[in-house]
Amino acid sequence: MRRASGVLIVIALTLAGCSAPTTPVPGKASPLSPPEPVSVQRGDIVSVVALEGAVQATPEYVLWSARKAAVAAGKGVRPGRRVKAGDVIARQGSTVLKAPVAGYFVRWLVPLGVEVAARVPVAELRYQGFGVAASFPPELSYRVYGGPTSAQVQIANGPGPFGCALLPSVQSPATDGPRVAVLCAIPTDVAAFAGLKATIGVRTGERHGVLVLPASAVSSTADRGIVWKTTGGAYAETQVRVGITDGISIEIVSGLAEGDQVLPYPPTLSVTVR
Question: Model pTM?
């Protein structure tokens, strides 16, 4: 697996040589020379977030229900039983829930035979090796999009980067707000020790051939944003829908077309460059 680049980029937008802050007047040309606009283009975005974590021995993980249905135990599944990757742990009608890695079955989290909703934790298992546990801080939770898809790990002063299997994990309580928990199973042929610090580069989203702008040109919150659209020297606040970001570029879902031009800073940054 190739090493993912640009794990987490924090942008500091510095506009050199700025005059006193002024706000462009929508629909009118600026009396000063405006900065060069940027164009909406097509490109690829891979969102990778770096998280600081720690190595744990035989970490626990959960299996989620696949759909709304009753849960039945797989053949011979009981607490303490060893399981192999691919073993059927539970069934929901014709749907099976399998162990993603080798380890041990710990306990059921729901009563067997009771109907549960989709993506409810139904069983707890334990990985047979080492794993790296981390969580997204609240301010980065919006970067999770459709859920983590793959990850790489670098153990501090140790091996890495190497790919690791992402295991379903329950959300851990946190004093500073809810967090999205991440657990990566370290391959058993990689030397690791409990307690070591590690960095996980989690790939949380990927888009190809989509409309993009520099992230610094869009004032966005979650899935919506605002830009200064420019036409013939006139400015207009324009609302857009946004998708994923890698910290440098951001996906434009709607509101602008390929080739449209916007100022390189959003309406919330009221600066006119001479």
Answer: 0.68
